[in-house]
Amino acid sequence: GPAHLFRLAGRCFSFVESTYKYEFCPFHNVTQHEQTFRWNAYSGILGIWHEWEIDNNTFVGMWMREGDSCETKSRQTKVHLVCGKSNKLAYVSEPSTCVYFLTFETPLVCHPHSLLVYPTLTEALQRKWDEAEQLLYDELITDQGYKKILKEIFEEAGLLKATEENEVEKQSKKITLEFETVEKCSKEYRQLSEEIKKLTVLLGQHGIAYKGNSGE
Fold first, then answer.
1. 11 and 74: one domain?
2. Residue 157 banded pLDDT, cuts 50, 70, 90
3. 205: in domain
4. Are 148 and 139 in contact (CB under 8 A)?
5. CA 82, 15, 85, 26 torsion: positive or negative?
6. In this structure, are residues 100 and 77 in contact, taking their beta carbons and an 8 Å threshold?
7. Which domain holds residue 154?
8. Which domain of life is it from (predicted)?
9. Cα 120 to the chain's mean position, in Å?
10. CA distance linking residue 119 with residue 54, whole number of Å
11. For 94-123, how does the pLDDT look when each residue is reduced to its tens digit (9 = 90+)?
12. Residue 172 has pLDDT above 60, yes or no
């Protein structure tokens, strides 16, 4: 992510609401501590640093996932980054059960370019993004295809975690020989056809009959 935000690493920021104290430690975790004298007062983890929330090709927040268990799922927290005069937790809510929303104010995000994703990428990934922009401009890919490429770039950069479905899809592509364009598919088909012809001749020279079918 944005290098200038790393100066927040190793620090923690707290916010007290009612009987609860929330603590946000950037790039580490979010915790909640119930400040009462009840025998079973809750104190635990609402999420561990996981990935970025990216919207309109801009970093807008941090996802803290896989916190303490809550019924059938784990607690998770989205920390929204907004411009502020000082570093502080400004707001906490729980929009749905065991999913928390924190607003973190910091002067580190006040510059209009401070949260752009593109500058944080390697040159190779920037080139990949540039190529996707060109393909979209030339109408060779759809808007949906463009977004898919960007998501892959963000995952490759480690900004987003690749989902299990994506991994399964990648493995199936390796097995089924899917191609991005008809041209690539035709080229591969021609190469394989030539290879089969050569092998057929070679088998014939050794007196081995070759019985092929369309499936093979």
1. yes
2. very high
3. no
4. no
5. negative
6. yes
7. 121-161
8. Eukaryota
9. 14
10. 14
11. 988 889 999 999 999 999 899 999 999 999
12. no
Record the tokens describing residue 59, joined without a space: 């970093």
pTM: 0.69
What CA–CA distance (Å, rounded) separates 75 from 100? 8
Domains of the chain: total: 2
Query: Does one domain contain both 64 and 129?
Result: no
56 shares its domain with 92: yes
One domain, residues 86 and 12:
yes
- Angle made by CA atoms 68, 169, 125, in degrees to the nearest 5: 85
When computed from its CA atoms, the radius of gyration of the chain, rounded to whole angstroms, is 26
- Which is it for strands 99-106 and 76-83: parallel, antiparallel or unpaired? parallel
Find how far residue 152's CA is from the centre of its chain: 8
pLDDT, tens digit (0-9, with 9 covering 90-100), for 190-204: 888 888 888 888 888
Percent helix, strand, coil in the chain (nearest 5)? 35, 30, 30
**Is residue 216 one of the residues assigned to a domain?**
no
Per-residue pLDDT reduced to its tens digit, 37-81: 777 777 899 999 999 999 988 999 999 999 999 888 899 999 999
Counting beta carbons within 10 angstroms of the beta carbon of residue 176, is it exposed (0 to 12), middle (13 to 18) or buried (19 or more)? exposed
Q: Do 154 and 65 sit in the same domain of this protein? A: no
Region 11-24: what's the mean pLDDT?
Answer: 92
**Do 16 and 74 belong to one domain?**
yes
Decide if 204 is inside a domain. Answer: no
